Model the fold of this input.
Amino acid sequence: QAGRNGVTSNIRSLLASEDAQFRSTRGALAGFNPFGGDKYFAAYASQALDAYAELTRFRNLGVATPTAPPLN
Done:
């Protein structure tokens, strides 16, 4: 059903190839972890959001937000 409503029908393969290209441009050792681990999250670490900073930002704007566990 990926091609419904005007969406490119090969979107999954297109995103997979763009993701592979992005991770390859991060350098040969990008995401390298000698103990295993997840290379995907290492490659995209610079794009990760700080959930608690966003929670604070929204609360300061007066947006109703759910409760969150403490940071400890």
In short: The chain is about 40% helix and 0% strand. The two ends are 43 Å apart (CA to CA). The chain has a mean pLDDT of 79. Helices lie at 11-24, 39-43, 51-60.
